[in-house]
Automatic annotation (TrEMBL):
Pfam families: DAO. Its cofactor is FAD. One of its GO terms (molecular function) is sarcosine oxidase activity. Keywords: FAD, Flavoprotein, Oxidoreductase. Residues 4-367 form the FAD dependent oxidoreductase domain. Belongs to the MSOX/MTOX family. InterPro entries: FAD-dep_OxRdtase, FAD/NAD-bd_sf, MTOX. The keyword Nucleotide-binding does not apply. It comes from Lentinula detonsa. This is FAD dependent oxidoreductase. The lineage of its organism: Eukaryota, Fungi, Dikarya, Basidiomycota, Agaricomycotina.
Length: 414
């Protein structure tokens, strides 16, 4: 298999695709990464933690997540200790949560149902919830150190013969005889290709406007905040599960080894429009305030956190960040060839729920590259698919997508 595969982006989709292609015998796989440091400090795949859950109403994602968790736990030669099986406490009375519960039960997972908040508090004394809160604990889940996992998989890719080119931003798709045969970079470097895999996450809509991708997804910033605990505080909260409330969108993690608690809201997010295309605004593009979040969002985070951990909520934020997603309208990924340029393959549209699938998502892309992807999945992830449903996983937040107002940003000290 001597095809020259060039992958743009060394995040979740890009590194996983490279790994699975190399495992299948592809011999010429190159990843081009815009950042000169790795993992890129503004990439969503470079994070202290990401939720690993099987709790999906869509049976496909539920089953695939179970397969991913098996790898997280068993393939320690790849992942080391990056996965932490804390369990995921799923809260909320939405249809999304109910159908996710049914799928978890159907898969035979270790489920513990809670009919009232008092039983949750009895199991996890640090957690404080309103009396009408119901949910279930999925013991087969938890969280992963995303930055560490990305780095470990990339090292595995390089050990298999894959190449990683850092600090070069792809700026041109060079076509000859009607097909793309090379990628041009901002410094003049040209990398020859048989196939270009565009795995550029939230930068996808803006990187090559001529591909007409902008109508397929939108880059959205999601506010995240962290709180620094003392060693004594962290000891009290160390064994709590990930909390994920589909009725409000709020979620938070147990303390990391550095005693940091991270929180966010699974919400529609914020756009940042540049030239009619939403484009990430990060610490690299805006060093002074690229990590700041909107004030109203910060207050919502504090209020939601106080409802779960009232004692910790008295502490100020130690860090904030806008984590940028590439959201498709239906929250399904975009994996498939460009309809008029088959030498371009998209592997993107993570929609805020792709990272947990890092061990297996590249398998789907590799199938698409080799033409062996199940026709049902081929249509599900097609670049030009008809949108038949919308993502309702974020409905509980009660928030609407809006344009980012840079005059309303605040940092951790605010």
């Amino acid at each position: 298999m001597n095809s020259k595969i060039v992958i743009l982006g060394a995040g979740c989709f890009g590194t996983s695709t490279a790994y699975h292609l190399l495992q299948r015998g592809f011999q010429d796989v190159t990843i081009i990464e815009r950042s000169d440091e790795f993992p890129a400090k503004d990439a969503s795949s470079n994070d202290i933690n990401r939720i690993v859950r099987t709790s999906y109403p869509d049976p496909f994602y539920a089953k695939l997540a179970k397969e991913a968790i098996h790898s997280w736990k068993e393939d320690v030669d790849i992942w080391g200790d990056s996965y932490h099986e804390s369990g995921v406490l799923v809260l909320g009375a939405s249809d999304y949560a109910h159908n996710a519960y049914l799928n978890d039960v159907q898969q035979g997972l270790r489920i513990e149902q809670f009919e009232q908040s008092s039983t949750i508090r009895a199991s996890f004394p640090p957690i404080s919830l309103s009396n009408d809160t119901r949910g279930y604990l999925n013991h087969d889940g938890g969280w992963v150190d995303a930055g560490k996992a990305t780095l470990l998989l990339t090292k595995k890719v390089m050990s298999l013969g894959g190449k990683l080119i850092l600090g070069k931003r792809a700026t041109e798709l060079i076509r000859k005889e009607g097909t793309t045969q090379a990628v041009g970079c901002d410094d003049g470097t040209i990398v020859e290709s048989s196939l270009v895999v565009v795995a550029t996450g939230p930068w996808t809509p803006s990187i090559f406007p001529e591909l007409g991708y902008n109508d397929n997804s939108v880059a959205t910033g999601q506010g995240v905040a962290m709180i620094q605990l003392s060693e004594e505080e962290a000891t009290i909260y160390r064994d709590v599960p990930v909390i994920l409330n589909f009725s409000t969108g709020f979620y938070c993690f147990p303390p990391t080894k550095d005693n940091i608690v991270k929180m966010a809201i699974h919400a529609p997010g914020f756009t940042h429009t540049v030239g009619n295309i939403s484009t990430p605004r990060t610490v690299i593009s805006h060093p002074d305030d690229g990590l700041f979040i909107p004030k109203t969002y910060a207050q919502r985070l504090r209020d939601e956190f106080a409802a779960v951990y009232p004692e910790l909520a008295k502490k100020g934020f130690s860090n904030t960040r806008l984590c940028w997603y590439n959201d498709s309208p239906d929250s399904d990924w975009i994996i498939g060839r460009h309809p008029t340029n088959p030498s371009i393959m998209f592997a993107t549209g993570g929609s805020g729920h792709a990272f947990k699938f890092l061990p297996v998502i590249g398998r789907i892309v590799a199938d698409a590259i080799q033409g062996t992807l199940d026709p049902v999945l081929e249509q599900k992830f097609a670049f030009n698919r008809e949108i038949t449903h919308v993502d309702d996983s974020r409905d509980g937040s009660g928030m609407f997508r809006k344009e980012l107002d840079v005059n309303e940003l605040c940092g951790p000290e605010n």
